[in-house]
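Tokens in:
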């Protein structure tokens, strides 16, 4: 196994305790990391600033004990390419006496590792080396982007894993090339964006079906929650469709968003016209992403039908 070199690695350490940051910094210095490549701060806002820098960190180490939700929102925003310049930086969370709920939140946000505090400098160095030599590939679902932690037997046949760029590894092994990393990040972003759109299209269909089923069965108790989720998914899918150059899908998201908002505003007094449009649009979205799901009817055909139905209403 190749020796890890810390000379060029850039690291951000977020911990409210100055003494903790000092001890970790000393250990990193002893391992060969340059003092100027170690950024630190006591609050989460400092992470946002650091990852937004074009020459930002290759790895973030963050205490998540007190502000778990805020930290997880930042981790998730990084992974979803909503924050920072590199959605694939390594992330280590640190927590004092982590309970299962906290563990689930941190792991569900896309962090690579969660370690229990108090942390020893040697433990941090071990975790960094593990992320250099054996980082997990990423998996994409409708609401998650991050390391795949499932057992092999739990993986579906259609789940495609993504080997994401790892600037930490490249620098640690003396293989770093800035131009190459930029190209690799762009390619991985495009791959993940396509997978995300596919998962979201399935989620739109699933949520629409559940809303329609609830209406037919006279049970709208969860309709508000499902509509809120559907609105969120649709908004994100529209942006991703634009990035992917999928004009048909991007255009479909506009009337879908309008219908969903109309159903939300109705406060449970759904009209058959809106429900019919919701069903047709969810089918159109699936057809745009996977043409075979709608048989011989194309996404454009369904769009025209939906527009016609709306005009008649």
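Residues out:
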């Amino acid at each position: 196994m190749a020796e890890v070199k810390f000379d060029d690695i850039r690291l951000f350490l977020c911990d409210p305790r100055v003494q903790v940051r000092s001890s970790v910094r000393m250990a990193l210095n002893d391992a060969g990391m340059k003092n100027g490549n170690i950024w630190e701060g006591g609050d989460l806002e400092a992470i946002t600033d650091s990852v937004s820098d074009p020459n930002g960190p290759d790895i973030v180490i963050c205490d998540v004990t007190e502000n778990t939700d805020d930290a997880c929102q930042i981790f998730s925003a990084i992974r979803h390419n909503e924050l920072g310049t590199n959605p694939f930086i390594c992330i280590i969370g640190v927590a004092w006496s982590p309970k299962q709920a906290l563990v689930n939140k941190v792991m569900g946000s896309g962090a690579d590792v969660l370690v229990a505090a108090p942390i020893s400098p040697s433990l941090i160095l071990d975790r960094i080396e593990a992320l250099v030599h054996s980082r997990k590939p990423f998996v994409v679902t409708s609401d998650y982007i991050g390391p795949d932690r499932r057992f092999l037997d739990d993986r579906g046949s259609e789940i495609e894993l993504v080997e994401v760029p790892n600037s930490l590894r490249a620098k640690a092994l003396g293989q770093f090339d800035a131009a190459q990393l930029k190209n690799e990040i762009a390619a991985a972003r495009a791959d993940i964006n396509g997978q995300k759109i596919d998962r979201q299209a399935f989620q739109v269909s699933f949520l629409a079906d559940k809303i329609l089923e609830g209406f037919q069965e006279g049970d709208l108790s969860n309709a508000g929650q499902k509509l809120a989720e559907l609105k969120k998914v649709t908004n994100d899918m529209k942006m991703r469709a634009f990035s992917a150059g999928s004009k048909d899908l991007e255009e479909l998201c506009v009337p879908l968003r309008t219908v969903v908002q109309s159903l939300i505003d109705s406060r449970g007094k759904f009209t058959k016209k809106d429900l019919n449009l919701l069903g047709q649009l969810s089918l159109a979205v699936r057809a745009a992403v996977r043409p075979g799901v709608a048989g011989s009817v194309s996404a454009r055909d369904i769009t025209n039908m939906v527009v016609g139905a709306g005009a008649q209403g």
